[in-house]
Amino acid sequence: MKFHDVDLASLTTYGKVKTNVSEGVLDVWTTQSITPVSFNLYGDSFKRHYVSLPENHRLPFRIDMTVKLDYPSFLLFIGNGHISFASPWQDNRKIEDIAFPSGKPKSYNNSLPLGEWTDISVTYNMDEMQILINGEERFTSRKLPYMSQKNRHEFEVMNIDGFSVGLAVSKLSVMSIKSITVTEYEEAAPIEHSTLEEIKIKPEMQDERPKLTLESVISELPQGYQDEVIETDSFLKLLRPIKFKRAIDKGGGKISWVASDYGISYHIEPSGHQLSQRFGWYVVYNGTPDTWHRKSDDMEETLNYISKSDPNLARRMFYALNDCVACYGARCLVKTLYEFDGQKRLACHGTVMLRMSHDDFNDAREFFRYLNALMEEKDGISTEKIYLTRP
Fold first, then answer.
1. CA 303 to CA 316: how far, in whole Å?
2. What are phi and psi of 31, to 5 degrees?
3. Which residues contact 1 (CB under 8 A, 6 or more apart)?
4. Domain 2-184, CATH 2.60.120.200 — does that match?
5. Hey, where are the domains in the chain?
6. What pTM does this model have?
């Protein structure tokens, strides 16, 4: 057995990744968006901005990490594969094979308690793989491609050189790492199983579900987030001339406010104790792709309007645009180029992504307050001014 206590300062950075070690804790963040795991069919297109451990490791091995994440999500790269952690419910919660990725990864419950130190253990034996989060078994399998007998010889050749290990976080995330250890075993690494149960809703139970309300959908969120969502909902409903209409999707995984007259939408996506929010001028998909269009896109004009009074807010919104990562290559029809303050940013869907914090909720409300004032001026309408209820 070989035990590797990884020196956190020895991790190598690739792409637009920043790191800082202070008092034995490594902070990792990126200034560029990473490709969602859902676009795995494009191979390693999302493996651009990450940190890598200094050595490769041979199976069987176990990786143990103690990490803290403040915003979804992060990826653990192992060889040719990856494991996603803390991605929102509607995103792909995936595990891709380390040796023979298929583009059809397996899904699992990858939720993490954000803002808290979390122990993660990942074990790869020759015939079994397991993921533990805070000691809870989240995934186990004896049927991954690298375990297959037909792939055994090729896999054993790959295992001679071992498999690389890396980590990537989404833009706006900061992941703090307290420790990383890798233990290589001569024989199989020890694995203990708990009972993994998949909860299925019986057809007769579906009619018993209560009607979804804003309060019920956000009920599992921390009270502070609930207060922010309720305040934002009240604020958006007061805006004029912009009129937002709220909708909750069938599963309760997304709350949307849409101002169809102005072609802009705002979404909050609660997922257990997690939350993410975004907004942008949406694309109208009716008809064939050559007819897709935006009803409006006032991002640049709004940023310039905001910058006259609050240049820092305008810069924060511009930075928070979700960067295009070329996941669809030249075929993409929704990437959007914006210019502001002498800079250019190619954005995916023209979407602004925000963190789960009072400051970011406040920034979103402020952005819409300025947008409403701009539209008021453009439309020649005089309405009562809308002010935030909290400073």
1. 10
2. -100, 10
3. 183, 184, 185, 186
4. yes
5. 2-184, 214-379
6. 0.74
Task: Decide: helix, strand or coil at residue 7.
Answer: coil
DSSP secondary structure string, 346-383? EEEEEEEEE-SSHHHHHHHHHHHHHHHHHHHHHHT---
Sign of CA dihedral 309, 349, 358, 249: positive
* Polymer length in residues for the chain: 391
Per-residue pLDDT of the chain (391 residues; tens, 9 = 90+): 899 999 999 999 999 899 999 999 999 999 887 755 444 444 455 578 899 999 999 999 999 999 999 888 889 999 999 998 988 654 556 888 999 988 777 788 888 888 899 999 999 999 999 999 999 999 999 999 999 999 999 999 999 999 999 999 988 889 999 999 999 999 999 998 886 544 343 444 344 556 889 999 898 888 888 999 999 999 999 999 999 999 998 878 889 999 999 999 999 987 655 567 899 999 998 888 778 889 999 999 999 999 999 999 999 999 999 888 776 667 778 889 999 999 999 998 889 988 878 999 999 999 999 999 999 998 876 555 554 544 3
